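User: Quick one: structure for sequence A, then sequence B.

Assistant: Sequence A:
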Amino acid sequence: MIATDLGGPSKHNSLFVIGAGGHAKSIAEVAIAAGFTIKAFVSPVAEESEFMGIPVLKSLPDNIAVRTESIAIGIGANYLREKVMLELQEYCQPSRFPALIHPSAIIASSAQISYGTTIHQNAVVGPSSRIGKFCTVNTSATIDHDCVMNDFSSMGPGAHTGGGVIIGKRAHISIGAIAIHGIGIGSDSILGAGSCATDSINELTVAVGTPARALKQRLINDPYL
């Protein structure tokens, strides 16, 4: 595996996880399996003071810019994950956001994984594929050879692509969906759960069915999870 844009190795294996919901829980499990210790979850709206037996903070420590802990953004919605990253990057260097890769994942030696990305249990990233910043490759999802996942895009559990697929920025391939060889999924688009895309999908589009057809247009911040 070739990790790119990491800004140097992580300074510490202690980790703050932004969020305290289901996706944050999944991120925490990946991080723990990868050798990190969860310092705390961070959520201004969490009602409980603990999550998974770990403290929940309302905000990151005031001196976070000079601390050594790493940070993961445990937010499943791509638009919101980008929004939080843009706020954090004003005082946190890229090296604070390690790529988190579960030991059961299979990553080709020629694949490139950028910072902030999470590769979950039993996922596969094929040869010469490039995974951008803060992407999510969820449980048992597979990306074949020569694919590109642009920044903040995501694949749900059990989603699959053929080779040479281009996934646009903030696009989402939902649980169990398939994108066949050589097509594109436009930025901010959604391929619905269990669907099969046999042709490219335009940006800002929700496509469903087999073969997938455009169902409706969407706004960049429309919920989909």
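Sequence B:
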Amino acid sequence: MHHKVADRTSVVSIVRGFAVALGVAALVAGCGGSGDSGGSGPKKAGGKIVISNSGSDTMVNVAQMWAEVYAKVATNVSVEVAGGGSGVGIRDLMGGMVDVANASRAMKDVEKQQAKQNTGKDPVEWVVGYDALAVYVHKDNPVETLTMDQLAQIYGDGGNVEKWSQVGVDMASIGARDEVVLVSRQNSSGTYFYFREHVLKNNDYKLGTKDMSGSKDVVELVGNTKGAIGYSGMGYKTDSVKFVKVAADANSKGCAPSLETAASGDYVLARPLRMYTLGQPEGALKAYLDWILSPAGQKVVAESGYVPVKASAE
């Protein structure tokens, strides 16, 4: 069974009118099997089927919400969620240690090959939502818009922007130093690799970045540092930070991340959120993924600040 992502018009319509009923009786009925076949797939513990799930810090909040809501839907299933970054989840899946890997980047071919070699199964990708990778600054920072090239000059190795004044920002007006404080992610993060690929064009980061282990940590540091800039999923925004509008180039209008702009494609740093399984899921694991892609599961995506997808089977 293969799931297709709906076109963006459908996604926008979901975002604008997301009123759904929790009609899950059929899915609950499909959760009766153990899903435990020959030592692979979800295990049983304490009388419940346990689905193990690890990976992307961008997705950890929505993954935990899915687990909490699903516990009321399928009372015989427990979903255990861990973060650590997309690389950690993919590593765990490659080793057959988890049932689901959450990833804000695509698996590399070499990782898929290693997973097949280790487990005998090909990884299967499921797009479960969309995110906008937001650029954050302190709430008092006067900056409004940055181009993709300016971001590359700020973050990229060899980039010539070291001070806010170089991009027309007067930090003295808020009593802050002119130097740009770079906040980044550790290299186990899918967000780290997405930013490196799409903003830095696969070039290296500058030395001296403050590399944080989680999305929440990035936003917290930026919110406490007037001269800082950082990047993270849009769902992590707090009152201490603000979004920077991002423009594709100097001739384009800047756009802030939102559900609407991520769904429409107007925001240049929108990206899919993925889950990976080893082979086509069966039993309780299939029922869980079907529920995530159902209106009830996608409602959780919207409530978590991300963009839902509409999936159909063929």
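The chain has eleven helices and 14 strands. The CA atoms of residues 143 and 169 lie 6 Å apart.

User: Thanks, that's what I needed.
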